[in-house]
Amino acid sequence: MRTIKFALLLISLTVISCKYSGTTETTKTEDFKINYEKFTLKNGLEVILHEDHSDPIVAVATLMHVGSNREKPGKTGFAHFFEHMSFNDSENVPVGANRKMIPEWGGSRNGGTSNDYTVYYEVVPKDAFEKIMWIDSDRFGYMINTVTEAALEREKQVVKNEKRQRVDNAAYGYTDEIIRKNLYPEGHPYSWTVIGALPDLQAATIDDVKAFYQQYYGAKNASLVIAGDIDVAETKKLVEQWFGEIPSGPEVEEQNFEPVVLNETKSLYFEDNFAKLPEIRLVYPTVKNYHEDTYALDILGQLLSGSKKSPLYNVIVQEQKLAPNVGTYQNSSELAGEFVFRVRANAGTDLDQVKSAIDDGLKRFETNGVNSADLKRIKAQLETDLYQGVSTVLNKAFQLVQDNEFNGDPSFITKRAKLTNAVTEADIMRVYNTYLKGKHAVMTSVVPKGQLDLAVAESKEATVWIEEVKQDVANEEVSQGEEAVYEKTPSKFDRSEPDFGKLPVFKAPAIWKGELKNGMALYGIENNEVPLVQFDITIPGGQLLDPKGKEGVSNLFSDLMMQGTKTKTAADLEEAIGLLGANINMYSANEDFHITGSCLTKNLDETIKLVKEIILEPRWDASEFSRLKQALETSLKGSEANPNAIASNVFDQLMYGKDNRFGINSSGTLQSTKDITMEDLKAYYHNLSPKDATFHIAGAINKTQTIAALSPLKAWKGDTINVPTLAVQSTDAAGTLYFVDVPDAKQSVLYIGKLALSGKDENANNLDFANEILGGGSSGRLFQTLRIGKGYTYGAYSGITNREAVSPFAIRTSVRANATLKSLEIIKNMVKDYKESFTDTEVELTKNKILKGNTRAYESLGAQLGILRRISKYNKDDNFLDTDQDELLSMNLENYQAIIDQYLNESEMVYLVVGDKATQFEEVKKLGKPVVQLDIYGNKI
Q1: Residue 245 lies in a domain
Q2: pLDDT tens for residues 66-119?
Q3: 359 and 443: one domain?
Q4: Does the pLDDT value for residue 355 go beyond 80?
Q5: 511-528: string of b/e by CB count within 10 Å (b at 16+)?
Q6: Per-residue pLDDT, 508
Q7: Which end of the chain is less packed: N or C, by CB atoms within 10 Å?
Q8: Alpha carbons 280 and 929: distance in angstroms, whole number
């Protein structure tokens, strides 16, 4: 569950539909739409159905028209808290089923709360469709009688942990609270954050929960969308049966607030315990969602900072070198809107300079106006975004449900597309003059502790409520508690669990192969659902080819290669890509180098020409190299404030050792990158050879068309590159607990694990299978115990990273500080007892979960690219998905216990805690393991 802020899922030009014929011919945007049928039940629930038979899955989204904007001062955060409560129990569904059973059916589920609404959603294999109707309708209409005091208190702890993880323990986490408190007048429903204040949450009672439900969870205050492999006539009957008896609920009055007007600019500063870099934000009040000016404001945000030719980027990043990037964007909600400027500056930068640079950039925009080529580029990109929004049934469900509930028109996307395309240069200048030029804003300076001199001059100190986490946990211990005693709500239908439908058959996609004369292998999957393609060129080597002592070269090289060609500056290249509505990127992974891209199928030829130019004609721009090195330094410095980043880096070091490439941050370190030169990057360039490279492509294109489009790459030549094989040996860290101090941390980040196996190992699949019950999502024991049972964390998971080298199995979670020892004890005992507690029941559960999960696992083009990558990297057969399933079906209890015994031996595991030493260091010694303190770089103290 999460607090969310959908501007609308695809920003500006959104989802359009599914009438694509599979050809590569140009089709007008107006010809595309999402086909749907809408009807209203007698209780007022509006229902939208969309058929999509491309995959045997169904998505369900229920949107309740209630967010944090319906709360009152003193009861903030309640909409989000109620979302959590809704996932507990209901009258006709077994305790814990909502969170546990759906993943076991091969589905996924979640929810989210914004200022304006709460949404619940699931995606399941087709055979579990009626079961979702059962669970979803029971959560909606039959949960309130099951609420207990124990459930209330347990969920309070979960939400507290969510806030600690996302706000209290995160750099810049309090900024949103500061802005809202000062942008909106006292009592305005946007003057507090969605997650609210913890004292308000702690004070919540069962009576509060019931009153909230009765007021806002009526059928008239919701929209339901069902999208996917359904039969409309049959689905109508099921909706009537399962949702028709839910009470209508009282009328919920519309909210109307006058637009916010600031009489002065409010400048505030805050010293952040976790920040390492100074950050400035300016927020201007603008217009609410669906207002005619939102479309021009969306484009204005991209024009001001979204490209290398944009005025703010030019002044702040390129000329004055104050920050690695700058962001500007419009954010519209139901009642109001905001236009945001955000710059996280380089270490030690005075934010007065940044503010002055923002002003200079805006003056340049006023002088030069809107560049017509930029406007054309943005609209081309939006055309691609339009189709990307229909690649999954869940995205379509989201869009339909939001536009129906907030605009009364599920198909508003068609109108939105036209309104966006109609935006003119004059419209953009008009909204700039109306909402930004000469207007007042809320300005925040968030600076590292002890660096107040970096804040904007004459700022006033911002006030936020900061929790004090005490070691005394008696009042925070929670449990499942007794089930509620109540009289079941009568129903004319049998509301017991329905049977599964016909088992959907997972069909692995057809794969074609080929090879170019330069030695590059070709792998493809044709998918004609939308007129898009995604591609990836994988070149062996990646970070393994970094020079010793200069780790980070490949990462920096991948960035520099995208900064222009011999005939194009960085800005020219960005514009050329944008005018095609395409994306082209490069990145270096542990063992491979990747060139990736996506575009409309009709633009693949031109996109590949640009790829060829990027590969064969690098620019080697010295000024861009200097900028990227500064940006990398800023990023690495910023990560020193992130407890999760610290934990990840130190854990890798404990697994592999300081001298092993896999034990070093993939981007390098401040030490290893400081002496990297342009010559180092030019030397690395020779590793870009097509000889052992593989081109993967998925989308609306066949083998013949792909080979024709790749014609420009025939000019790319090269020899086989010798990629070193790193020896991986276990370190002497096994059985030891390591502790890294992050003073005043509200949570402790825990990593527990050991080196396990290679992705090429014959047991790789089996270890994945064996982990499902332990840490495979919300139904895993870690999540069920640490979050659902104890309320210690927001989430807990385990797994192994796939790579050719031996990789670690790891358990990861962040727990509230004063539950650190208890959480470690639970994890320790759970792993120790895992083999003996794994029975034939778990064997069957694992099979069912994975087999059914496969029906939705490969729906998107990105997932299909993943299939191709696994085939080429690990030399798998084309039908490996089928053989993997056969392997799963053949595993018995003895096989599972043998895998657990071999790879999940608790005594061989390393324990890492990143948290507050003052309160937790002595506590963790009670676990009974040797304890070693490290600094944030992994050095022993």
Answers
A1: yes
A2: 999 999 999 999 999 999 888 888 999 987 777 788 888 888 889 999 999 999
A3: yes
A4: yes
A5: beeeebeebbbbbbbbbb
A6: 81
A7: C
A8: 44
- Work out whether the CA dihedral 139, 142, 144, 150 comes out positive or negative: negative
Residues 301 and 442 in one domain: yes
Collapsed DSSP state (helix, strand, coil) of residue 870: helix
The Cα 205–Cα 291 span in angstroms is 38
Question: Do residues 759 and 696 share a domain?
Answer: no
State the Cα–Cα distance between residues 594 and 587, nearest whole angstrom.
5
Q: Are 619 and 251 in contact (CB under 8 A)?
A: no
| CA dihedral for 543, 742, 279, 674, sign (positive or negative) | negative
pLDDT above 60 (res 848): yes
Distance from C-alpha of 506 to C-alpha of 273, rounded to nearest angstrom: 50
Residue 855 structure tokens: 């029906």
How far apart are the C-alpha atoms of 582 and 753, rounded to whole Å?
40
pLDDT at 472: 63
Cα separation, 715 vs 896, whole angstroms? 50
Q: Which two tokens stand for residue 181?
A: 């408190």
H runs (alpha helix) in 408-468: 412-421, 425-435
Question: How far is it, in rounded angstroms, from Cα 443 to Cα 352?
Answer: 11
Is there a contact between 196 and 208 (Cβ–Cβ < 8 Å)?
no
Amino acid at 872: S
Query: Residue 152: inside a domain, yes or no?
Result: yes
What's the average model confidence in pLDDT over 595-602? Answer: 96
Q: What is the pLDDT of residue 721?
A: 92
Q: Is residue 727 part of a domain?
A: no
Which single residue is written with the structure tokens 């050329």? 576
CB atoms within 10 A of CB 682: 13
Report CA dihedral (134, 139, 145, 150) to the nearest 10 degrees. Answer: 120
Q: Minimum mean pLDDT among 28-37, 99-108, 596-605, 872-881: which range?
A: 28-37
How much is the pLDDT for 3?
41
Helix and strand element counts for the chain (H, E): 32, 25
Shared domain for 246 and 270, answered yes or no, is: no
What integer is the mean pLDDT of 576-589?
95
When pLDDT is cut at 50, 70 and 90, the band that residue 164 belongs to is confident
Q: What is the pLDDT of residue 31?
A: 55
For residues 379 and 451, membership in a common domain is answered with yes
Position 338 pLDDT exceeds 70: yes
Tell whether 724 is covered by a domain.
Answer: no
609 phi-psi bin (left φ>0, alpha ψ -120 to 50, beta other): alpha
Given the structure tokens 């809704």, which residue do they identify?
A: 86
pLDDT at 441 over 50: yes
Q: 694-714 burial, b if ≥16 CB within 10 A, otherwise e?
A: bbbbbbbbeeebbeebbebbe
H or E stretch at 79: helix 78-86
Within this chain, do residues 397 and 287 fall inside the same structural domain, yes or no? yes
Domain's final residue, options 221, 251, 281: 251
**3-state class (DSSP) for residue 504:** coil
Amino acid making up residue 899:
I
Q: How many other C-beta atoms are found inside a 10 Å radius of the C-beta of residue 889?
A: 10
- Out of 143-152, 471-480, 581-590, 601-610, least confident range: 471-480
Mind listing the pLDDT tens digit for each residue in 366-409?
999 998 889 999 988 888 887 787 778 998 899 899 999 999 99
- Of 209, 224, 251, the one marking the end of a domain is 251
CATH number of the domain bearing residue 546? 3.30.830.10
Grade residue 474 by pLDDT with cuts at 50, 70 and 90: low
Sign of CA dihedral 469, 472, 475, 480: positive
User: Which domain does 216 fall in, by range?
Assistant: 36-251
Q: Are strands 747-757 and 592-600 parallel, antiparallel or unpaired?
A: unpaired
645 touches 637 (CB < 8 A)? no
Residue 730: pLDDT over 80: no
- Count structural domains, the chain: 4
Are 272 and 312 contained in the same domain? yes
Please indicate, yes or no, whether residues 216 and 274 belong to a single structural domain of this protein.
no
